[in-house]
Specification:
The chain is α+β, with helices and mostly antiparallel strands. Helices cover 23% and strands 28% of the residues. The protein has seven helices and 20 strands. The strands form six sheets. Strands 6-7-12-10-11 form a five-stranded antiparallel β-sheet, with no helix packed on it. Strand 18 and strand 19 form a beta hairpin. Helix 3 crosses helix 4. The longest helix has 19 residues. The structure holds flavin-adenine dinucleotide.
Length: 337
């Protein structure tokens, strides 16, 4: 077991923030994970996957456990279904392309989302009309207190919009060590109902798309809209889309009749946070090396040497401007440490 000290995490977070971990280890097996948890290297630990949903604002005085347990097992369930058991350290997008190559359908709309497969259930990753909850059958977790493994069904994961039990009552209780996805082998449910996919496919003269066509289209759309973290540090959507009451919505809608919105249930409305920021004149705003992306106002970027604190200051500024202009509070989707 090799534990490094004072390790830079710059290459382990997509914002590219240069902070140090007091101790650091990449774990490649469940037994190693258990051994690390039992060790007395440090009284606290921090789990790290692909570092694509985390903003470091200071050095991490803990043992950082980088989840690098790899491996995929396949189990044919019937003529039309396969069950994949995927270890937590597999890269999500590589998994999507593995499935596309094998003609396993269900996650092609989730192409190019960064991070680990094992982290995907935590915020119930979603894009272009699909969420991981649509195909996740369950996951295997390690109870941090006992080191024991436990199976959780999808229902027990209590999924919601960018939400799950792992962000709420089970926060800090479990480590996800593997996930199980049920995918189609023949009768794929091709989802192009999100306008952008349909348009992208049509402009490529593709009228009977395969799952590969959908994955490729999603990749092209995302590449045209979102900054590649390898070229420009960022953590994807920084804020959640706020959900407001019908009463608040009436006030908002009267003042901003052209603003987009989605009805959520009977009494609530979701407003795209990106629109709120953009319409407040902040798209492309930059302070030092921290900025709002030029094409996508929901994405904050590190132009080069921004610190986590610079990004946070910018986020506060945005929150204040949005609250002043619309009376709506937007909160970060990303984990801030
Ligand atoms: C450019 C870009 C685009 C993005 N687009 C999308 C999108 O379209 N849709 C979407 O939903 N998300 C999107 N995201 C957010 C991000 O990709 C997801 O949240 C992803 O699931 C995070 O995975 P990760 O391994 O990088 O997590 P990390 O950032 O490493 O960790 C996130 C949190 O999970 C904890 N954690 C990590 N591994 C485990 C584990 N095995 N068990 C328990 N806890 C763990 C960490 O301690 C931390 O609190 C995007 C991010 C970027 C940078």
């Amino acid at each position: 077991m090799i534990i490094e000290e004072h390790k830079s995490l710059k290459d382990y977070n997509t914002f590219g923030i240069d902070v140090n971990a007091r101790y650091f280890i990449s774990v490649t097996s469940i037994s190693q994970l258990r051994e690390v948890l039992n060790s007395d290297v440090h009284k606290t630990h921090l789990l790290l996957g692909g570092g694509s949903n985390i903003l470091f604002t200071k050095d991490v005085d803990a043992l950082v456990i980088h989840m690098d347990i790899k491996g995929i097992k396949e189990e044919v369930l019937d003529d039309n279904h396969v069950l994949l058991h995927i270890n937590a350290g597999e890269n999500w997008h590589n998994l999507v392309r593995y499935c596309v190559d094998k003609n396993y359908g269900g996650i092609e709309n989730l192409s190019l989302i960064p991070g680990n497969a094992g982290t995907a259930p935590i915020q119930n990753i979603g894009a272009y009309g699909v969420e991981i909850k649509d195909v996740l059958v369950g996951c295997t977790v390690m109870d941090i207190a006992t080191g024991e493994l436990k199976e959780l069904t999808a229902k027990e994961c209590e999924f919601g919009y960018r939400d799950s039990i792992f962000k709420n009552k089970a926060k800090g209780k479990y480590i996800i060590v593997s996930i199980e996805l049920k995918l189609t082998r023949k009768e794929h449910h091709i989802r192009t109902d999100y306008g952008a996919i349909q348009n992208e496919l049509e402009s490529a003269n593709c009228f009977t798309p395969t799952i590969r066509d959908v994955s490729d289209a999603v990749i092209r759309i995302r590449q045209s809209k979102l900054p590649n973290p390898k070229e420009l540090g960022n953590g994807g959507s920084f804020f959640k889309n706020p959900v407001i009451s019908a009463k608040e919505f009436d006030v908002f809608h009267n003042a901003h009749p052209n603003a987009p919105y989605y009805k959520v249930g009977e009494k609530e409305y979701k407003i795209p946070a990106g629109w709120l920021i953009d319409n407040a004149g902040l798209k492309g705003y930059r302070k030092g090396d921290a900025g709002v992306h030029k094409k996508q106002a929901l994405v904050l970027v590190n132009y080069n040497a921004a610190s986590g604190k610079d990004i946070i200051q910018l986020a506060y500024y945005i929150q204040e401007k949005v609250a002043d202009k619309y009376g709506i509070t937007i909160v970060p989707e990303i984990n801030i440490l």
